[in-house]
């Protein structure tokens, strides 16, 4: 377990990294220190050869957005010169799957980070929103772009223009989250899913993630070709033979990443 000032990271023998945002008194508001440490923690998880990353928040929030106290006196020059908050995007660039375990508030930048995760598991009491409009700004790390691709224009406009919050049930209905479970079960559910994914062939998992993400970024014909090329490629590896042999032998597969 590595403890930073604003977060903690634990990478288990099972290949699952658990990254916890840890400023509970400020509802895990995202400040500069946390952003820098977040990037360091992602590097640490990569060095530790984590196979899946679970991201959660300590206390009653996933994250209530960028730290408003830190942002209030920033100028246009400060924001553009330092490109504040850009490092969060590193989460979306990880090659391994990421699972967001959302307990409580995921607002503003917190909702945007949640949307960078590949799978989102929310507790019944979670709430999501892009309330930046009420602060005289707009979302800045995906809240107008990823959100629109995920839920469509009608829902995205409603959330971004009114700043209203949606509860977990509505977030599930509009396709923003993958699963809703009881608040007490959020982390366990996420860790169980992470362990399951970590047990599969790493190359197949990477191929699956790349292909699904590709769907947002290419015309269907290109996406289908990309998928087919990856599909063919997996027949180059021992894990394909092992997975299919295990099925036919009625035994669990022993993937070796070979
Ligand atoms: N920043 C700083 N402190 C926060 C905070 C935040 N976003 N959210 C909560 N806190 C602090 C509160 O000030 C309070 O501190 P104390 O008064 O105890 O010292 C403590 O956390 C507990 O909060 P509350 O007392 O307000 O708790 P409640 O249960 O009454 O309300 C709430 C919970 C989540 C509804 C409320 O705290 C709230 O509305 N929070 C603000 C939510 C919000 O507006 N979030 C959006 C922030 S703007 C960029 C990219 C992205 C962004 C910016 C730039 N670039 C690329 C440059 C992102 C912007 C945002 O996220």
From TrEMBL:
Give the similarity note. Belongs to the enoyl-CoA hydratase/isomerase family.
Give the source's domain of life in one word.
Bacteria
Which protein are we looking at?
Enoyl-CoA hydratase-related protein
State its role. Could possibly oxidize fatty acids using specific components.
InterPro entries attached here?
A: ClpP/crotonase-like_dom_sf (IPR029045), Enoyl-CoA_hyd/isom_CS (IPR018376), Enoyl-CoA_hydra/iso (IPR001753), Enoyl-CoA_hydra_C (IPR014748)
Catalyzed reactions: a 4-saturated-(3S)-3-hydroxyacyl-CoA = a (3E)-enoyl-CoA + H2O; a (3S)-3-hydroxyacyl-CoA = a (2E)-enoyl-CoA + H2O
Q: Which PANTHER family match?
A: ENOYL-COA HYDRATASE, MITOCHONDRIAL (PTHR11941:SF54), ENOYL-COA HYDRATASE-RELATED (PTHR11941)
Q: Which UniProt keywords apply?
A: Fatty acid metabolism, Lipid metabolism, Lyase
């Amino acid at each position: 377990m590595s403890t930073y000032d604003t977060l903690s990271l634990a990478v288990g023998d099972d290949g699952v990294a658990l990254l916890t945002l840890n400023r509970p008194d400020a509802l895990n508001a995202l400040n500069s220190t946390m952003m820098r440490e977040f990037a360091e923690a992602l590097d640490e998880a990569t060095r530790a050869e984590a196979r899946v990353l679970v991201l959660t928040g300590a206390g009653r929030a996933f994250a209530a957005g960028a730290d408003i106290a830190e942002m209030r006196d920033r100028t246009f020059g400060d924001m553009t010169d330092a490109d504040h908050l850009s490092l969060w995007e590193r989460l979306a660039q990880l090659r391994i799957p990421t699972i967001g375990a959302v307990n409580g508030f995921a607002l503003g930048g917190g909702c945007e980070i949640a949307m960078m995760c590949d799978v989102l598991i929310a507790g019944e009491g979670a709430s999501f929103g892009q309330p930046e409009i009420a602060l005289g700004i707009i979302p800045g790390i995906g809240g107008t772009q990823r959100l629109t691709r995920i839920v469509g224009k009608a829902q995205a406009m409603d959330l971004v223009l009114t700043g209203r919050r949606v509860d977990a049930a509505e977030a599930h209905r509009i396709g923003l989250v993958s699963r809703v479970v009881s608040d007490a079960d959020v982390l366990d559910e996420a860790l169980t899913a992470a362990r399951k994914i970590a047990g599969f062939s790493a190359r197949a998992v990477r191929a699956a993630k790349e292909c699904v993400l590709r769907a947002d970024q290419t015309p269907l014909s290109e996406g289908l070709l990309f998928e087919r090329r990856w599909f063919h490629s997996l027949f180059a590896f021992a894990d394909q033979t092992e997975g299919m042999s295990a099925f036919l032998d009625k035994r669990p597969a022993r993937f070796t990443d070979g």
